[in-house]
UniProtKB/TrEMBL annotation:
Taxonomic source organism: Labedaea rhizosphaerae
Keywords in alphabetical order: FAD, Flavoprotein, Monooxygenase, NADP, Oxidoreductase
Similarity comment: Belongs to the lysine N(6)-hydroxylase/L-ornithine N(5)-oxygenase family.
Catalytic activity: L-lysine + NADPH + O2 = N(6)-hydroxy-L-lysine + NADP(+) + H2O
UniProt name for this protein: L-lysine N6-monooxygenase MbtG
Annotated InterPro entries: FAD/NAD-bd_sf, Lys/Orn_oxygenase
Annotated pathway: Siderophore biosynthesis
Amino acid sequence: MIEETDTPYYHVVGVGAGPANLSLAALFQSGLSGSGEQLALFDKQPGPSWHNQLLHPGVRMQTSWLKDLVSMVDPTHPLSFANYLVTTGRMYALMNAQFDFMPRKEYVRYLAWAAAQLPNINYGVAVDKISFGEGGFTVYSDGVAKARSEHLVIGIGSAPVVPPALAGLPDDRAFIADELTQRLPSINADLDAPMAVVGGGQTGLEATLTLLNAGFTNIKWFGRRLWFETIDDSPTANDVYRPAHLRALQRMSPVTRRQVIERLNPTGDALTPGAMRGLYQANYDAMLELDRFPIGLYPARDVVSTGIDDDGNVVLRCQTPEKREEYTAKHIVIATGRANVDVPFDDDLRERVETTEDGELAIDSDYSVRWKGMNGNKIFALNRARLNHGLTDANLTLLPVRAAAVLNSMFGREMYHIQDDLCPVNWG
Ligand SMILES: Cc1cc2nc3c(=O)[nH]c(=O)nc-3n(C[C@H](O)[C@H](O)[C@H](O)COP(=O)(O)OP(=O)(O)OC[C@H]3O[C@@H](n4cnc5c(N)ncnc54)[C@H](O)[C@@H]3O)c2cc1C
């Protein structure tokens, strides 16, 4: 029975309005139009955004524009990227620009365009408590119940992590890559000062290039892997990012599945080849001006500890496969990866939710979380089960496929058919 309160009641509430939950909202809207069922999303950002602090000029997507919020499942959906291009008048200009990969700023605009056409997307609401009681879930912000629902979908994404070796440095000398744009005006008085970027992933690459473009001439880029590894974008590597492969993963034992997913990492968790080429060429161009490379690449450097020298510079102590090295920099940019954001379940719900040995939510193949109470009311979690569902769960490649699987499970019928039969790879 649903309690009588003033708090609005929805069939499903999604926490977070990033691409994952927007895809769900888009398919919910078209699949259930006229049914009276409603979905609401709550996001702490003041408006539509997608890693907006990392939108440096010129940054590109890592995935094809066809991998939008809806097209892999429903290409006739009004919120397809193609419809965005046509209805906003940019189809011809964008096509003729011949991008290999879409500018990330364009994707952010597309998300904002789509969000504006979806009902019940609430911005500026940080959900800090989720409870469960008679009639379903209640989400709260600042002590106020914002909504109640039968089902819940967690889509709260990830946040940057700073490893212990880099923690505790003075804030004016060391900061995360997300803060680089806002810090530039206060750090660019001396463009020849030694700068360091720690983290060999895409965010580290983009921070390094941003420093170069801002005029810095002495940048060291440190990565832990043996070389600055680019994504394997070959056809069979891309076959990992399709429903046929997801199905194969679900046939494996949990232990094998985990090992397979870890070994598939180079297909996704690496640098975009075009971006790496761009950095290499920009460094070469700058070398022609300066007679030396402004960017030094330092692979196989594990920063194991840090300190501050007498001049206030940051000291980076690195372990290579053979020896210890030490470097100093006036400022360091930390780009050492991201981790899942904690779900703000209240104590009662937290106790009822099953977790894995890593402390992560236990998530089934339909993206539902195992919990005591799950029979009537379901909790789904998106982007939190990479080691169980594969690399597609941690990126945008199969957003609509994942949203379709969630809706099919939520309504107990095939609302969307997930089709992927023409696959030349036999995954076993
Ligand atoms: C810079 C960058 C570029 C990337 N580029 C690509 C790419 O090109 N292709 C690809 O496949 N993958 C890419 N990824 C990886 C992945 O696609 C993204 O992380 C993607 O944003 C995941 O979508 P999401 O909706 O799960 O999470 P997010 O986009 O992180 O969205 C989560 C949302 O939840 C909100 N939120 C969090 N906590 C709360 C709360 N308590 N209450 C209310 N709201 C909350 C946040 O404000 C945020 O808007 C990229 C990642 C990064 C960091």
